[in-house]
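pasting input
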Amino acid sequence: MSDQVKFVLDESHLPEAWYNLVSDLPEQPPPVLHPGTGEPVGPDDLAPLFPMQIILQEVATDQYVPIPEEVRSVYRQWRPTPLYRARRLEEALGTPARIYYKYEGVSPTGSHKPNTAVAQAFYNKQEGVSRLTTETGAGQWGSALAFAGGIFGLEVDVYMVKVSYEQKPYRRGLIEAFGARCVPSPSQETKSGRAILAEHPDSTGSLGIAISEAVETAAMREDTKYSLGSVLNHVLMHQTVIGQEAQLQLEQADDYPDILIGCTGGGSNFSGLSFPFLGKALREGKELRAIAVEPAACPSLTKGRYAFDFGDTGHLTPLVKMHTLGSTFVPPPFHAGGLRYHGMAPLVSHLQELGLIESRAYTQTEVFAAGVEFARVEGILPAPEANHAVKATIDEAIRCREEGVSQAILFNLCGHGHFDMQAYIDYFAGKLEDHEYSEDEVAMALAGLPAVAV
Amino acid sequence: MSDQVKFVLDESHLPEAWYNLVSDLPEQPPPVLHPGTGEPVGPDDLAPLFPMQIILQEVATDQYVPIPEEVRSVYRQWRPTPLYRARRLEEALGTPARIYYKYEGVSPTGSHKPNTAVAQAFYNKQEGVSRLTTETGAGQWGSALAFAGGIFGLEVDVYMVKVSYEQKPYRRGLIEAFGARCVPSPSQETKSGRAILAEHPDSTGSLGIAISEAVETAAMREDTKYSLGSVLNHVLMHQTVIGQEAQLQLEQADDYPDILIGCTGGGSNFSGLSFPFLGKALREGKELRAIAVEPAACPSLTKGRYAFDFGDTGHLTPLVKMHTLGSTFVPPPFHAGGLRYHGMAPLVSHLQELGLIESRAYTQTEVFAAGVEFARVEGILPAPEANHAVKATIDEAIRCREEGVSQAILFNLCGHGHFDMQAYIDYFAGKLEDHEYSEDEVAMALAGLPAVAV
């Protein structure tokens, strides 16, 4: 193995295609259903919301989908991203484990989100769309789409969950600096927003509500389409540049991971890192542990039900089979805005059902403690979302120490915490509260699941 | 020339030595003087404040000073940093100029400051120091030293200008996340601080006052030394890794700069980029334009006097010959905390006297306009300090267009603006006020210069 701590790739190693895990699965995931008919949706049903190239990618079965040169040209600004060996963390933990992390915080907006934002903006531009709508929670996705829209000359309207809009003016500032419009959700701009406000004038919003607003606006305007930052197959596929680069970088390091770790909100950064490795393991019939880590306060994978559900609160989307806490679920306040979605990517859910991945949940105080421990030795302050992956990594490294085994752990440091300093300040001030759902609470959240005979 | 937009170097190209411009100068800069005797200071005079290796570097005349392997090992985390060709900016400006920028925002704290913080922390640790004191304005330097102190196991006390301490809780949060102690200055902890508070109980502080507090604390404690983030020769030298890497990267690009541009507060990022190029131009007798860009609200190089002055408000430091606005000068509030120092690095001042560099000043609204223009096409939101360099670059590129000449411009994008979003929000809200000093105002600020017969 190499002594290096940083593994960089030059532009010639930027992936030329996205990897599609569906092609290597032993069993295909269930189809997406029309909520009225209960029948699988076709491309035409999705055409009001997405450009055709994106729809085709959503249902693609090819192993690889070529990345357009226009997209690769933008990727080149920050990709390939570095992969690090966390030697100082290993030393601090006294572990024989070899810890690696892929660092996506070097992107223009500080997270993995631009990997798909750039692709989506490109395909929309190519098909003559002039405006994109989307939702954002903490703002990582909203700022990524604002950046990508700016590059390709698209207007971008971001419906931002009201509580984040008010509490995170800096992410909003970044969205506006890139030239996008930021609307606090629920808003008076949409029927969905007005309906919520009529019933709950003080609503602080949720991701599910913001999605309804963005989808409604896109569906109503000819020149406008909708863009989603996680959950869907094409989004997960766009993120596979992360894992493909990591494979080359670990070759440089003359090593190979035993364990892959990523945090999961909608599932895209975990998928981006792990899918290329999982596909290889499936093709070669090898063992590989992949751990999806989520907040105990929004435990879709660990406590949700695997069922058909809506993607939004206003029930404007098709039905997808996923691990869900119910489309009206509103998690308690906690500091990882990117991990507050009621459902999990259908493909990630399917993998868990097939027994191909593991999942676990942590409370926020324990993940912040892990993040600060990481920052003090490695020098990078992770986003609160990424702290979940850091915590699982540290736990696995400690297990390696206790068992006296030297395994290789690779985790995705999916973003930096520069826009999340208030969360760290609250953590140091002892102000963070933890919440874990009981089975009863989950059952209550799930009471309103749609009845679908599948 | 290459089509590439990003030029990366692998670890094998990390510089092995810092470059010392003094070795190539036609005339040596004036010595540093003892304020009591008016005689040049010797190493022993500085020993209470700095470790001996740093003092020797401060007066070094060798062309290169080897970088210790322990420092290079930490540098490797983010160095070599990328160099970009700003093709989208060129296109937006319709300029024949070739615009390149070196991006230091990929460092752990988002600016060039860790380049010297790591070196200073290492030498202090090596000589048995257990605690460092320093000052910080906006917090870029304070967070860099906090990071470096964490790596080498040193305690770090950061005296942070009170107005920034209160207005920039996120930079303070980062300093504390890295494990350092952050003290609002003026404080009750020092004689200098108490003296200011006795006279001005509501003082919001200044860099000059914070330096006095940090220097006083270091001078009084055996186990504690002082660390400065700019101005001094050794700091400028540590930053030359920037320019040395850029030289290799421009070789990759098959190009060479006609113009170098950097913003200047104390002078270190400008020096780090330009000194290796200036040295080569001096050795080869070639022309090269290097432009130092400063705020019109703190115009030390463009309007200050070249004179011996104190580095701090409390007059605890030696006297250095520099362009200065007077050690008691307090600039009006503006959003580039790193450019609010009353003086300029003696070496940069000396270069201006020798006619080897140019300088210019801009108001803050015009530099923010330039920064937003840059962000929308290049995708990176610069720190307010760096916006000064962006503005000068755009102006030079427009001149190239008007003159129909294709020159190569290289500027230092010394940091990102993630911790400065309030400034952008204020800019968009039309709340920024501009201030330009008249000759009379400058003369008044200079009234208290010390009388030194040199």
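fyi The interface with chain B takes residues 4-6, 8, 10-11, 73-74, 76-78, 84, 88, 106, 108, 110, 147, 150-151, 169-170, 173-174, 176-179, 372, 375-381, 416, 418-419, 421-422, 424-425, 428 of chain A (CB under 8 Å).
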